Amino acid sequence: MPETFSSATNGPDDGPFRSRLSFDLDVDICVVGAGVAGLTVALEAARRGASVAVLEGRHVGWNASGHQLGTVMPGYSLPIGDLIERVGIEDARELWALSKEGADYVRAAATEEAMPGIALTEGALEVSNVDVGEALISRLQTLSEDFETEVEGWQVDRVRDQLGTARYFHGIYYPRAFQIDGRKYIHGLAAQAKRAGARIFEDTPVVSIDPSGIRKRIVTPSARLRASHIVLAGNVHLGAPLRRLSETLLPVWRYAAVTEPLGERLGEVIAFKGSVADSDGIDHFRIVGGDRLMWASPETTWEARPRRFAPVIQRRIATIFPRLGKVPISDVFGGAVGVTVHAMPQIGQLRKGLWVASGFGRHGLNTSAMAGQVIARSILWGEDRWKLFSPFELVWAGGTTGRVAGHLIGLWGRGQSAAAGALARFREGARARERVREARLAEANRQAGTRPPRRPPVAPRPVRPQSPRPAEARDGGMPVAPSQESEKIRDGSV
């Protein structure tokens, strides 16, 4: 298995902050959660001179931030059309611009010089399971004209030339999107935050929080901490002290598998080097390490052993790419993301000095990086761009009932997608057969038109029996006296 997907190990900059908070501490900002959002807040605030402590209940990058496919592109889990309908075109443009800033932030940070082994690759392709050419054109116009995003529309032939499967139709290509090694990125952020002066404490769960007063109080199992600002960046793992907040998120697990090396046959089937995601959010994959395939499974609202999903992902790969068949799986990993009811992240100030950054859903890397910037600048500079997220309030996600409903909706959505895809492929096949029939008919007509015309055979005229005519008719109508032999014949004497 390549180093990119090996289990987390301590690097040269990782050791000193891998310790539990065991003494009381006063800081300007306390961040709860050492994922991408929390570490970005810590890094940006420390760079600007604030004293920062990060409290992590387990270890840096243990959940979704360190277990994802690493695709970075603009946007949110909420479709762009729904975003416009919810907040209007002007606010939607500003929110979209923020998501682009988040992607740009990750690109600037994820360099080989700053984070060796980050393995950045360019380009992301969103493909459709059904034939939606007209909808594609409309969406391309919205993205390029209204939201100033660089995109390209790919026709069916080009998609299938790059991806050797008949299951995909049109595509939208994002040339400015990119992929990175997510685990390298999260540990690189932690190292940069540490060098900037932030203090990171692992194995330090938060027992209770008192957000009242100018100096807020945080209690851990072995120490107490006071801070002017608290940033809650623990996503679905905030725990009992913040149960009401964590219950506004639906926990969604997604598991990904990395295949064994597949050799040259992988490149013969999949020529596209960026990441690929289908428009229904079911499959997400990319080539890693030159000849391995990393593939994310459908989502589930229940946690399970990752290895359980190896056969599921094997079947998905064989279904989408029959030429690859049943590929051997090297490793399976996964993590839980928080999904909000309105599909937009929770970014903002809950009360004076108490901030939240969570609920990033499928677009985790760009939105979590953006949230870290927005909150750090709001605390230190008084910016108020976080208010753009005010229309997306904290909404209870339904608890166990919501998880069951989410699971059933996911199953129904996957079934509907499969049926729609099968119908689209059937119609495509029917159109292809009709074109072949019409081509054969046209060729037959052409061949018939190049031969010399054949004269049809002339049928013999039918011979009509002649009835005896009167003598006058035979001799011009004048009476002729019967001859002597004629008389003998009539009289029977001859």
From TrEMBL:
Listed Basic and acidic residues bias regions: 485-494
One Pfam family of this chain: DAO
Composition skew (Pro residues), residue ranges: 455-468
Keyword flag Iron-sulfur: no
Annotated keywords: Oxidoreductase
Domain FAD dependent oxidoreductase: 28-377
Disordered: region residues: 441-494
Entry keyword Magnesium: no
Signal peptide span: none
Cellular component, GO, one term: cytoplasm
One MF term in the entry's GO annotations: oxidoreductase activity
Protein name (Swiss-Prot/TrEMBL): FAD-dependent oxidoreductase
Classification of source organism: Bacteria, Pseudomonadati, Pseudomonadota, Alphaproteobacteria, Hyphomicrobiales
